[in-house]
Amino acid sequence: MLKDNIQKALAPLNLEQVAAGEYDKTGYHLEVTAAPEQMPEVAKAMLSLGCFLESLTGLHYPEHFTLVYHFNNFRELCRTAVHVQVPLDQEAPTISHIYPGANWYEREAYDLYGIRFAGHPDLRRILLPFDADFHPLLKKFEEKPADA
Amino acid sequence: MLERGLEEKTYVLNLGPQHPSTHGVLRVELEMEGEFITKADPDIGYGHRGHEHMAENRTYPQFLPNMGRVDYLHALAYNQGYCMAVEKLIGLTVPERGEYIRVITAELNRITSHLLWVGAYLLDLGAFTPILYSFDDRENALDLLDYLTGSRLTYCFYRFGGVPVDIDDDFTEGCRKFIQRLRHRFADYDDLVTKNVIFIHRTRDVGFITQEQCIKYGLTGPMLRGSGIPFDIRKSEPYSVYPQFDFEIPIGEQGDVLDRYLVRVREMEQSLRIIEQALDQIPQGPIMAEKVPKRIKPAAGEVYTAVESARGEFGCFVVSAGDPKPYRIKLRVPSFGNLSILPEIAVDTLVADLVAILGSIDVVVPEIDR
Hints:
The complex is a heterodimer of chains A (148) and B (370). With 148 residues, chain A is of the alpha/beta class.
């Protein structure tokens, strides 16, 4: 079982959480929480098991960003969601040298949120114009939504 | 050019943003030596409308029409992906007849998308006639969808909990006629295109993608299956009523442009099979779930659903904070990952082949830009 193999491969990394997910509720087979600096190791482990990076995106919370990496596999279905909390003023390490496909996803996260990825070869904006001076998906927490 | 430290014999060419072969506003900056490409850098975002930002400012039902405008060629797959995500969040089950109607319409829509691709792609390669045939066929399918959904391109047809309109005998009859007609036409397509020597020479042994590259770049859809990996969400992570149908996943052998073409053509035949079976098996019953909440306010949590669109895996990642509006919606679009491999496979090819490669990716640029 791929799920067990992933759990086995991630065990030596001492991650905060590696647990079976509730597939019926969330669509995840495995839920993983990791620290930013552990991410390259996690990516290497996932690649060695033949998983691909399905999606990478950020979430903006008042105290931190959360990067969500989704991995999946072409041979056997096993969606692994990796949540990584990144403090608002810190960089996250890139995984684009492991998964070249992450290059664009990281550029997108930088573009939309301003999250910087240390070691990224080409961290430019990707969707917005290069001279844009804002990151559109940052939330404004001081305002209360009108209908709340 | 010299400012960039390039040699004098290198020159820079802009492919696009208004180039017919880029199918939308995509610009690719090419550095070339003679006719050979040394570097390709796609520049995307010309059509960035901020769908993901809109999502955070709208209630769940208000965001539904947006889903027809992300990938306008296979809009119903996007409808379905988003509806499935919300249904999962609030725990709604779609009645079986509703699921059947979703499958029939989504597969019809997949055929229209592939037909457009076949025509437009051959036009890129310099063959003018096929687009007239494929648009003729596509028109038939669009009429059927128009009859049922009321629109021809940017569909907003599925609802949370089912579909709003039931199919009738006219629609069923029309579908059967269309299936029959298209099967006949596939023979013409084969004679006209697939066996055409010029076409084969343009596409065989061009733009190879290895299985390893597929994993590293996260390719999905015909791009992936052309390289011989049988990964199709309809089979590998079955949703809706797809497990009840008998169909195959066509795959290519060596992962070149011709393989990707063949995969798409064969996929249309499989879609016809699915529609035919669905029309035969469709049960009677309700098309909408009985208790759809008037105000949709899911509990806090997150959900990821995936569907197979004409271009690959469309993933809808919804994070709810317990509000009537989503906290975050990330649309995992297949073309984004599929295009990101272009800088790697374009190197050392001729600029004329780049048009063949770019077309074979089947990018829908508004989907990448979102």
